Amino acid sequence: MWPRGDAVAVETPIPPRRPSAAKVRLLEVADRLFYAEGIHTVGIDRIISEAGVTKATFYKQYGSKDRLILEYIRGRDRQVRDSLTETAATSPSAEATLRTLVDAIVADLSRRDFRGCPFLNAAAEFADENHPVRRAIGEHRDWFTEFLESHLQRMGHPTPGAAADELYLLRDGAMGGGYAGDPIAAHTALHRAADRVLAEAKTKSGA
Length: 207
Fold this sequence. Notes:
The protein is mainly α. It folds into two domains: about 20-65, Arc Repressor Mutant, subunit A (Orthogonal Bundle); about 70-200, Tetracycline Repressor, domain 2. Helices cover about 70% and strands about 0% of the residues. The longest helix has 26 residues, at about 65-90. The radius of gyration is 22 Å and the shape is elongated. GO terms for molecular function: DNA binding. This is TetR/AcrR family transcriptional regulator.
């Protein structure tokens, strides 16, 4: 019990402020254009025009194109993390999670608006590896690699770290080859190679 007469201040948590409609619209337009046409190709004036806002509004919400680009990368990162986290939570096994991931990559390759991996595309436009965009991409790739490794470890793979690197490289190759070349050949090769990596875990565990 608190001593009589003492008043206890209870802080009410302040919910995070929702971004303004203009800020959301600017990012949606930038996301579409950056992915479809390239980050450096698309100018701020075009984004402002298609978002239907003023230049003053843009600078109030983002301050610069660099900040908008960084938010684009972070938004794509959140999409991947949320999707994979949900897949892992609803899949019956670690293997099922990874196979669902492979199937999702194959589905991406088949989309009419597919333009390759947004992270690899963005990295190619920023030569300085210390640029905030490159660092954000690196953080995304580290998280993705750890996700793969943890699931391969749960499957009993003898070398989950190396296998995670291999699966990630397979994913990168399929995304690039599927866009620049034949998507059917890319997803066929991806399935075949991923099956081999996952089978190594089954052989080790005796499954």
